[in-house]
Amino acid sequence: MPASRKPASTVANPLIRNVAIIAHVDHGKTTLVDGLLRQSGVFRANERVVERAMDNTDLERERGITILAKNTAVRFHDYLINIVDTPGHADFGGEVERTLSMVDGVLLLVDASEGPLPQTRFVLRKALERRLPPIVVINKIDRQDARAEAVLNEVYDLFIDLDATEDLLEFPVVYTNARAGTASADAASQGPDLRPLFDAIVRHVPPPRGDRDASLQILVANLDSSDYLGRIAIGRVFNGQVRIGDPVAVCKLDGRAQETRVTKLFAFEGLKRVDIDHASAGDIVCLAGIEDITIGETIADPEERLAIPPTAIDEPTVSMIFGVNTSPSAGREGQYVTSRNIRDRLAKELLGNVSIRVEETEFPEQMKVVGRGELQLSILIEMMRREGYELQVSRPEIVTRDTGGRKMEPVEDLVIDVPEAFQGVVIAQLGTRRGAMTRMVNHGSGRVRLEFRIPTRGLIGLRSQFLTDTKGTGIMNHLFAGWEPWHGPIPSRATGALVSDRSGTATAYAIYNLQERGEIFIAPGTLVYEGMIIGENARASDLDVNVTKEKKQTNMRASTADEAIRLVPPRVLGLEQAIEFIKDDELVEVTPKSIRLRKRVLAANQRPKSRQGE
Ligand SMILES: Nc1nc2c(ncn2[C@@H]2O[C@H](COP(=O)(O)OP(=O)(O)OP(=O)(O)O)[C@@H](O)[C@H]2O)c(=O)[nH]1
Ligand SMILES: [Mg+2]
Description:
By secondary structure, this protein is an alpha+beta fold. The longest helix has 14 residues, at 148-161. The protein is built from 15 helices and 35 strands. Strands 18, 19, 20, 21, 22, 28, 30, 32, 33, 34 and 35 form an eleven-stranded mixed sheet that branches. An eight-stranded antiparallel sheet has the order 12-11-17-8-9-16-13-14, with no helix packed on it. The chain is globular and about 85 Å long. It starts with 15 loop residues before the first strand and ends in a 15-residue tail after the last strand. Helices cover 21% and strands 31% of the residues. Bound molecules: guanosine-5'-triphosphate and magnesium ion (MG). Magnesium ion (MG) binds next to helix 1.
């Protein structure tokens, strides 16, 4: 099948702009889209609009972060502006990479106080590789600690560092307060609205190029689904035109062509999808009713079948084993529990999620899922659990490579921002994880910025430790930096586990007696099984304990009431904390109702005793 995308020299539609908003996490992308939606008259005057309207999945709203890239479109005068809101967290970088194929320019948002951070660098690099002209938006200009001028200089440095060509260095700059919905070309004064930003988009983002009269080519860059339409392909028409009812050929990734017909066609309009019967070069559209279509495929003319070569995406580096739940309580709380169920769900995930990979293991009931980071994998696990799945997962591992007989591992650039007082403890912690400090900047504000080069392995489990060490005041961000020779062993958790030695119901009496040994994870009344981890031992070795013991002299449990008063509240681990906590010989059991920690080998007498100081 011929693969080509003619570099069209003609403007496909002078009244369209296709733009992506890219930035480091939390710099205000989704909030800025709210402003653009509001001010383009998408909402009725009296309509109440939720904040961060584009973050419309449960998990996005709960966590306040964008996970999936999403499209919207707004009108400004005679122009239609298609906007892609992208996630800023490094684990979802794949979403940014794939959506850049839809657009002709980017808004690079930078927080006026934080300045460029690791993911700013990543997304800008991806945009520059595609030679997408940027508009730099310095956002949160209202912050007390805003330092717009210095931040702009840092942005220039970043461009130069990334070898941006002269023409791309001449980017326009707009200063915004996304929350208030104001923009200005000048840092010192804010206008009444976002018009300066709309103007900049219309002026500096080039109109889409393409040939309406050429053979049809639509590149699928994203997927969505709806209950009554099924799978929806989202993509950009690069060349040609398409009408409802047209026969088309889908150029599949494996080189096959699948003939089908266009039955449903939509365009974006604010937060809605509207039916259209025709689209042409330059448009961003949704097509429903094409079976099995996936990202990277081209919907083409049935005769000519010209595929657009898909873009290569950075390789994932962190893996976890997803397996069938084998604990004694398996199957009680979930709806989908078999390896077949888990396998099918992962296959479905692969269709829409370009930055994960699923590999078989030597055991049919275990799959290895490879992704970009712990957060990405734990979000997938959380989604599965909410959909009714039960599974057990292992401690995250990193992917290694063999280069010329040398074992190589991924390393990251880690940027940390902490109050000076915590600098020492953070440096010590990173030292044990083989982090090497590369830079230290003291802005004189009481906080210091520390930069490290660290094996990706050293980051596993770091986040919760870091938050504890800095009493929640530290900020850490990292970015994949490349491959380096294996850095040697990194110690895992220094403490052992308190492990239940039998099944039964945990009692307040037993917990009361155990709590001096370490921290307890469960409350009285919790059902436990042999091999289940019920707490963290203060010492390095594991300890088998009886957490079901009843007080001898009373025959009633009534006494639990007064004992409960003296119980330290359990440290209940959330999914991510549980994943960060476990060692290689431990697993996290995940069901729609519970998150339990367990030893891999449940029977106490068959379990190898964990070695001291491992
Ligand atoms: N003070 C101030 N806060 C802002 C501004 N813009 C956004 N915020 C706040 O910054 C936080 C993050 O905003 P989001 O819009 O979710 O950021 P984002 O870039 O979409 O984040 P991700 O999609 O997760 O990468 C929210 O609490 C916003 O209210 C601004 O101009 N000024
Ligand atoms: Mg967002």
